[in-house]
Amino acid sequence: MITDVWQLKPEKSEVVPLFSKYGCNFSILREDLLHSDFGGNKWRKLKYNVLDAKSKSFTGIETVGGAFSNHIAATAAACFKQGLKCKIWVRGFESYRSNPTLQWAENKGAEVHFIRPELYRAFLHEKASFPNTGNWYFIPEGGSNEFALKGCEEILHENTADFDALFCGVGTGTTLSGIIRTAQTHQVVYGLPIMKKFDDQKRFIEQHTLGSKIEWKLLDDYSPLRFGKLEPEQLEFIRSFKNETSILLDPFYTSLAAFAMLDMARKGCFKPNSNILLIHTGGLQGWNGFSVSI
Ligand SMILES: Cc1ncc(COP(=O)(O)O)c(C=O)c1O
Predict the structure, then answer these.
(1) pTM over 0.90
(2) What's the 268 CA to ligand 1 centre distance in angstroms?
(3) To bridge 74 with a disulfide, which of 38, 117, 219, 238 should be the other Cys (CB 3.0-4.6 Å)?
(4) Residue 200: exposure state from Cβ atoms within 10 A (0-12, 13-18, ≥19)
(5) Best substitution site from 168, 202, 204, 253 to test ligand 1's pocket, by max atoms within 8 Å of Cβ?
(6) Which CATH topology does 42-146 take?
(7) Interatomic CA distance for residues 196 and 167, integer angstroms
(8) Span 124-148, pLDDT tens digits
């Protein structure tokens, strides 16, 4: 049955206390629980895009991304659920087709096509110039557009208002921008880019939060040494976080944010008794790319 999942749920994620440590109190916002297949920031980013596509009677959504992209997996699942066709353009080669993320997308009925890396930029450029062609509604890489921002503005709510600091992973900067747009003036928003160079992301956030009075920072001390790779210390951290809280973090984004949050607290970066919120943005399908037990 096709259900308009976004119309059915009130969509306020629960704030769950985690622990008190290093003189601070930590909680987590369970965005990951919004949906089993496309929860977290994917739920937020896709919501108004899918509703727009449906209201304009597009029969399908097409999007683009890397072979293990959470956005690709989520878009395929959301289209399946909403009765839309899905076409996915993957940066890479036919040989990637058997990877778990793309297999998942195909099992949800998505068409998967490949674009050689040297042609990828030109393809993105063309799509940006002519986004919606025929019956296909186009969502850019990382699901990053104005509708996604609008959705990410709905992450925070009245139960997140009293926290002093908010922590969230950063890929394109869309999710963090939505959070900054709706944070309270007494809150500091910390973004954890998962890549070493993030000038584009910083610019994106600046451009999309113009006029905001919120203090925000992208932290550069914690980015993984190798983009897209899981360092052994990070894996160990994720395991111990799960042992302590029973909550599984994703391999890249929220785990990095959680690590940074606790490291900063340990180093005394926050006032005593600060209330700190970690935003769990989902992405658990990312574990499919690793053969490790957690
Ligand atoms: C699980 C997860 N969390 C956070 C992010 C970062 O989101 P954004 O691209 O909006 O910065 C991503 C990237 O898409 C993601 O997959």
Answers:
(1) yes
(2) 28
(3) 38
(4) exposed
(5) 253
(6) Rossmann fold (3.40.50)
(7) 18
(8) 999 988 888 889 999 999 999 999 9
